[in-house]
């Protein structure tokens, strides 16, 4: 180890400015209050300040910055959705991701690996073909591939025909990527602060204050704050916050578990998803295999993990990658997924004037952080529903105008 690095590590003095400014005093009023300092809330704050010149903003976080699903997700980024509305939306997100390191001046370790959704049945081949056609039509690089190609793309996969669920083909999406999730929250948070946004951790919103059908502020554990506009971006707590504001959401919250193995040398490049085996995995830059399965089969506000999950996951992963048999699982955790009936998010205006919502991200919202932040900022600043967000308006559920993305979810439900 270089001598200077050792000296720095042991020294009590730390040189250079702190990454975030010290938390300021809470003011009695802000132009915009954002509830939730996950990736989504922080990205919205950043784009409101950068693109719309609104910087009298407080982001209120009941825990710590980026400590919700942003910290718990498996970081898969892709645009290979099923509906034209979904594909157009996630395509814009992937375009923003590609520039984000430079823009936020932080190494997000954004790494395009290619994404394989394995098909083990004729029905799955049909869905893969359908997705490939919709994707290509909208300029997203996806194609249906068969075992010969899969063997070239991912030689580690067990392609034997004599297993329980032989691999018949796959949807291959070369832009599929992973990134460092914490850095996304840090990057958006720091850049928002540089533009005057305040982030208040350990500040829980306990009630939403309204008068005459519009929002006037929020009650927090640190007092009342008045606000011209309020955006809720609280993922698992979406229904609780909407209740406080006085409207209902078509959302159920279910646990989703994941785990990582001990680090290995780099051996797996692409991201692998198998719907029939209910598993997905990738190898992180640190060498750990990041793996997950289906959502738990009941609604629950809990982040406990289970032996069931680990056992089922291990058995299924070994069908795909028998070489992992002796690799220990190192950590296991759960997040809470806010699920809508059509597996698409809810974004935009609400029945309460000047109160906006960003919710229903279920198991798939990390990849949407940049586009959602950018478009929600537009929505809040202009009080209009941007075209790209129109399909995801809250009223679509009552209108039965669904954006059905179940076939494109990586996670079994
Ligand atoms: P969060 O990061 O959860 O932020 C919301 C914040 O609101 C939290 O910090 C919370 O503390 C705060 N909050 C809640 N209530 C209050 C209150 N009353 N007052 C103040 N603050 C409050 N998506 C993908 O695209 N790819 C994946 O590979 C992927 N894998 C996943 C794996 C797992 C195990 C899980 C659980 C999810 C996964 N997701 C994935 C989904 C993704 O994690 C989420 O959709 C995304 O992180 C949501 O971001 P967010 O900023 O909206 O929410
Ligand atoms: O949306 O790609 C995804 C995903 C993978 C695992 C969890 N979500």
What does this structure look like?
Helix 2 (39-52) runs parallel beside helix 7 (181-194) and helix 2 crosses helix 10 (369-382). It is built from 10 helices and 18 strands. The protein has helices spanning 3-10, 39-52, 69-72, 84-104, 122-137, 147-153, 181-194, 238-245, 307-320, 369-382; strands at residues 29-35, 57-60, 111-112, 115-119, 143-145, 169-173, 177-178, 198-200, 205-211, 214-220, 223-232, 252-261, 271-274, 279-283, 289-295, 329-339, 346-349, 355-359. The protein is globular and about 65 Å long. The chain is α/β, with parallel strands linked by helices. The protein starts with a helix and ends in a 31-residue tail after the last helix. Helix content is 29%, strand content 24%. It folds into 2 domains: 27-73 and 182-250 and 342-409, FAD/NAD(P)-binding domain; 113-176 and 253-339, 2-Layer Sandwich (D-Amino Acid Oxidase, Chain A, domain 2), CATH 3.30.9.10.
């Amino acid at each position: 180890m270089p001598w200077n690095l050792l000296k720095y590590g042991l020294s009590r003095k730390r040189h250079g400015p702190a990454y975030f400014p010290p938390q300021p005093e809470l003011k009695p009023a802000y132009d915009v209050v954002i509830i939730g300092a996950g990736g989504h809330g922080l990205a919205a704050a950043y784009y409101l300040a950068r693109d719309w010149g609104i910087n009298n903003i407080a982001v209120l976080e009941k825990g710590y910055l980026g400590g919700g699903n942003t910290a718990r997700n498996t970081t898969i980024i892709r645009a290979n959705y099923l509906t034209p509305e979904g594909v157009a939306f996630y395509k814009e997100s992937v375009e923003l991701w590609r520039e984000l390191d430079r823009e936020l001046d932080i190494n997000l370790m954004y790494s395009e690996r290619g994404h394989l959704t394995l098909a083990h049945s004729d029905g799955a081949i049909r869905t893969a073909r359908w997705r490939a056609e919709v994707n290509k039509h909208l300029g997203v690089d996806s194609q249906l591939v068969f075992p010969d190609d899969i063997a070239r793309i991912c030689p580690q996969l067990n392609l034997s025909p004599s297993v329980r669920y032989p691999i018949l083909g796959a949807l291959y999406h070369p832009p599929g990527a992973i990134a460092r999730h914490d850095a996304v929250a840090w990057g958006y948070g720091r850049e928002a602060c540089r533009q005057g946004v305040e982030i208040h951790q350990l500040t829980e919103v306990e009630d939403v204050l309204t008068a005459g059908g519009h929002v006037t502020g929020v009650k927090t554990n640190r007092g009342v704050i008045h606000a011209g506009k309020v955006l809720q971006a609280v993922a698992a707590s979406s229904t609780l916050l909407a209740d406080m504001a006085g409207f209902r959401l078509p959302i159920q919250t279910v646990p989703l578990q994941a785990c990582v193995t001990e680090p290995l040398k780099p051996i797996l490049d692409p991201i692998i998803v198998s719907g029939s085996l209910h598993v997905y995995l990738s190898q992180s830059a640190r060498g750990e295999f990041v793996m997950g399965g289906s959502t738990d089969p009941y609604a629950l506000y809990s982040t406990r993990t289970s032996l069931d999950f680990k056992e089922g996951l291990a058995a299924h992963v070994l069908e795909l990658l028998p070489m992992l048999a002796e690799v220990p699982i190192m950590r296991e955790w759960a997040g809470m997924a806010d699920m809508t009936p059509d597996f698409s998010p809810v974004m935009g205006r609400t029945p309460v004037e000047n109160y906006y919502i960003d919710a229903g991200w279920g198991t798939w919202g990390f990849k949407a952080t940049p586009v959602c932040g950018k478009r929600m900022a537009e929505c809040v600043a202009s009080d209009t529903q941007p075209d790209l967000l129109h399909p995801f308006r809250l009223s679509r559920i009552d209108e039965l105008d669904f954006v059905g993305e179940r076939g494109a979810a990586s996670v079994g439900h």
